[in-house]
Amino acid sequence: MLNSITTVIVICVSQIVCSTPLSSPANTAVPEIEEPPAPYSLSSTYLTYLAKVEQEVYKEIKQYAGDLQERLQLAQAYLKDYEDSTLKGTNHLPKNADPWQRAGEATTHPLMAYRMVRRFSKEFQNFVLNLDQVLENNVFDPNVFQHDNEYVHNAEMQHLFIFNEKLKDSTNPLRMRDVKINYFTKNLDDTAMQAGHYKFLAMCNGIHLQDAKVKSKLKCWLDTQRNPYFTINPLKIELLQEEPPLLQIYDVISDKWIADLKKTATPSLRRPPPVAAGATPRSAAYAWLRDEHIPNTPLSRRIELITGLNVRGMAASDALQIASYSFGGHVSTHYDSLAATDPNDPVIAAKGDRVTTFLIYLNDVEQGGLTPFPILGTFVKPVKASAVLWYNALKNGSIDSRMLHGACPVIMGHKWIATKWTHLNENMWTRPCDLNSSL
């Protein structure tokens, strides 16, 4: 563009001081200029005409300067974000570290990984689109071209790819997650773990997959029938799935109880050990609280009133698990049933498998942190003081494979939950077994 501006100025001035106007170079954008009057050297007529032409030149140069400033700001924003995240996050590595080692280190940190994806999907995209001419022979343009080619290849080969859209060529690109969902829902049984994993990814992006007929049966109500305790203060229940039953119950815990749980758990919060064989990948900090740790928060008794199950006592349930998720915190798809991981788990012999999960959200989450059930096609949004209740096992004692679930990454804010698992042996009379293999 600078060459174009220079050409405009030369042509304009040449037409003023020369009796023979110059022709414009090919493909050069030149503002329309009125035919100059007869040459009188630098007479007042020509000076007036020159002043008129300079107004056009001024507009062109001002626009050019503005474009340069905008591009400079884009470049500086991109460089600063990269330096503040990836460079600082990997500066502990040796200077001669292998590029793949450095790249691997960047992707293991959720914040660095998120900022990298954001740069490629937004900042870097704008940067490239504004600098196509300048970067025509630069390394960035071939890299973007390579990415777009690899995107098409991965879409055709059904490979999962970190970037879910092209960077520049298409205004309405195919989304990789949609390719995966279509592929797995058409070619695999809905209860397959692999199909559930990709549905999980889709729901973490806000895609609803619940069947319309199932949705038509959902409802909310005030429940006073579960226990006389709720006659005056009925439970606020929302049905999220009729079969298998999935309920969200609102206002089950007070702000005072929430504060007490957080305060008691915080000193004991610990990261889980590195993922072992068969364990569910997760990134949060956990603490375990027995009833005697929270004497002023009789949560187990409250859960008994709501569920009708025996919850109090270590034989009836696990200790209350408190989980704290920071940015990027998540849990991959899994079953809460202990038998799903290890049928020979000694806890099963002592207490029986887990019958129910009672998950309480201790705060609202700004963005992310959903609890998807990919086989059911629905997800639960974290709402402070609400609880989600579901059964992990059928009445015949076998695992309910429909209750596959996970925790989506926290995008903004923080997420606190409290989970209580109730076991079978102490509840064989409150939830009797059934010989029907389908129940």
Give the end-to-end Cα distance, rounded to a whole number of Å.
Answer: 73 Å
Order of strands in the sheet with most strands: 1-2-3-11-7-14-5-4
Number of strands: 14
Q: What's the tally of helices?
A: 11
* Order of helix and strand elements from N to C terminus: HHHHHHHHEEEHEHEEHEEEEEEEE
Structural Rg: 32 Å
Strand content: 15-25%
Largest sheet: 8 strands, antiparallel
- Counting helices, strands and paired strands, the structural category is alpha+beta
Average pLDDT, rounded to a whole number, is: 77
Low-pLDDT parts are: 13-28, 132-143, 158-165, 169-176
Shape: elongated
Report helical residue fraction: 25-40%
Short description:
The protein has 439 residues and is α+β, with helices and mostly antiparallel strands. It contains eleven helices and 14 strands.
Structure characterization notes:
This protein is α+β, with helices and mostly antiparallel strands and 439 residues long. Helix content is 38%, strand content 15%. The chain has eleven helices and 14 strands. Strands 1-2-3-11-7-14-5-4 form an eight-stranded antiparallel β-sheet, with helices on one face. It has a two-stranded antiparallel ribbon with strand order 6-12. Strands 8-13 form a two-stranded antiparallel sheet. A hairpin with a 4-residue loop joins strand 9 and strand 10. Helix 1 runs antiparallel to helix 2 (44-89), helix 2 packs antiparallel against helix 4 and helix 6 runs antiparallel to helix 7 (193-204). The model is unreliable at 13-28, 132-143, 158-165 and 169-176 (pLDDT under 50).
